[in-house]
User: Fold Nuclease SbcCD subunit D from Catellatospora methionotrophica.
Amino acid sequence: MRILHTSDWHVGKVLKGRSRTGEQIAALHAVVQIAQAEQPDLIIVAGDLFDVAAPSPEATKIVTRALSALRATGAQVLAIAGNHDNGAALDALRAWADAAGIILRGRVSDNPADHIVSGTTKDGEAWRCVALPFLSQRYAVRALEMFDLTEAEAQATYADHLARLMARLAEQAFADPKTVNLLTAHLTVVGGTMGGGERDAHCILGYAVPSSVFPSNAHYVALGHLHRAQLLPGACPIRYSGSPIAVDFGEQENRPSVTMVEVTAQTSAQARTVELPTVTPLRTLRGTLEELAAQAEAQGEDDAWLRVYVAEAPRAGLREQVQELYPRALEIRVDPSMLPDAATRAARPQRSGRSAPELFSDYLTHRGHEDTATKNLFDRLYTEVAG
Assistant:
């Protein structure tokens, strides 16, 4: 059995207010091309199809067309909701998905059997997959109410709830030794390396679970949520496929990819990472204005989106000077080394009995913005308003 594992598309994500629709379409087109070339039996999309819970009509069109194109390769397609997705909204698309031959799971339902998906490959090999969409902490106990819970079980941790839920679903799903046992979920595993653009609240604190939550008789566990492709240690093969596109500058070192898996009911899963072309690179530059100007002259035109840390004291017009050198700079910041240290910032001046221009001047000094032009501009505006 051949499986293509992908996740974290984040369609609709903007970068510093810049639409990346064209890049997202190109990235998903590359995923479809790999599916056409590799001819998998099953394609698993492990959550975060969208970037926001209320996606635009354009984002919805992109995702539904991508899923349809993947289905058109002849593979069976299974997609689950991630923490960025609106599970109820995805479930509302299930009538369309069923008609298109696509398996879509948005929320944990009251029927455990709804999360056990089965199929047969073109060569007649049977498979079953436990499909678990993202589950928030407050709904973890509610999801387990489909089973009998003791009081102690109800008060257990998020990881305990997930382990119990997966174990009971796997007990029903993984009964036939001649069937390939799969599990897909959208969550954080302890020891996983974050890609840089994930939502921290759903990656840390009580949301990280140990790899022991996964049933040991699973042949392959296809995860979404962490954006860097990686294999995690465990009693069964556990992988994150990585995102097909870097969602922000924190992911500029990531290599966009999908994972191809070959497995049978009698053999271990053999997985390999298939890298995708980088549609538009994300880069970070640092230096003084003079150094940045030299880099711009040496590099010439660059199609990358840029984040620039300028090693100059903050002053009026600095952003515009950098923007003139790098029109594709979406984020421009003063290098932290040029700002006053925390001890200096903590010493706030006396405010009472002082004029607004004096207070504004002190504020600029406190923030490390010693700029005469900015002070003069404030003085002139304040005089006009006060007069």
Remarks:
- The domain at 2-275 is CATH 3.60.21.10 (Purple Acid Phosphatase; chain A, domain 2).
